[in-house]
Protein: thymidine phosphorylase
Organism: Candidatus Acidiferrum panamense
Amino acid sequence: DKTSLILAPIVAAGGLTVPMISGRGLGHTGGTLDKLEAIPGFNVNLSLAQFEHVLRKCGMGLIGQTAEIAPADKKIYALRDVTSTVENIGLISASIMSKKLAEGIDALVLDVKTGSGAFMKKEEDSARLAEVMVETGTRMGKKVVALVTDMDQPLGHMAGHANEVWESVEVLKGRGPADLRELSLELSAWMFFLGDRTRSVEEGRSLAERVVATGQALEKLRQGICLQAGDARVVDEPQRLPQARFHAAVTAASTGYITATNCENFGTALAMLGGGRERKGDHIDHSVGLEFHKRIGDRVEKNEKMVTIHYNSDAKLAEAKNLIASSYVLSERAPQGKRPLVRRIIGA
């Protein structure tokens, strides 16, 4: 979901209109709306007329479901939670595609996660979900492509809300973690291509790189924040984002190479600390977050810091620390080969 904060300004700066209707986090998952609301004043509850105004002014807008746009999805999503059908492929597809098609789009690029941090742990299941969504969009006369991407470890170095906003801004400044930057450019390239802005994906990537390098994408983010009543000063002054009062380290229990992580547990730990929802309606602490210092393939020494926890309440800190520490698999041998960030492309 943090890629939305990067893609929208890149693609809008490149000349396309990017309406985004997003959801909130639940359980171990994050939510784009929750991240946006970490920006002081940012309003995700626009009317249809206000949304159209923002899109006309800057070419991008990010909101949630409304009484006018995909109203049934909100009710069905709540039912999925209490009926244990959150992971049903048909209902996932209906939830996502109802919002996307309601945006009035001509083309759609989907980022479908697979791995330990995704709803779909197996690549085959993620591919099946991607196929269903691509088929749904195609039947509705839209150009659709889905990239099945890795979520066996966190994307980027941050998890949370305020810290992911900061990390997204860093990418728009031409910095930030390599994997987050790479995926954002790849998705932007496909959006430019499907939106007929470029003649190829390669041209789309060049355009994406150019609007980042020239600062146009960053300026587009500032404009979008202002138009949705947010404090655009956070772009240059990240200290204006919510800040956690305390920090705690999670260290390696032994020496070895990181061969795997249970990414879902990171999201669960974040929710336990107040940075997510264990139940629908829970309050979100936007300042809570995790900062990852080590990735799969890295060698760590015993007692070396792997994760920094940003927190405000220590009520469940010990439990969260244990869960995070147990989520790393260490081995004497380094894993062979580097996992591709993009596993499959469906609908191309």
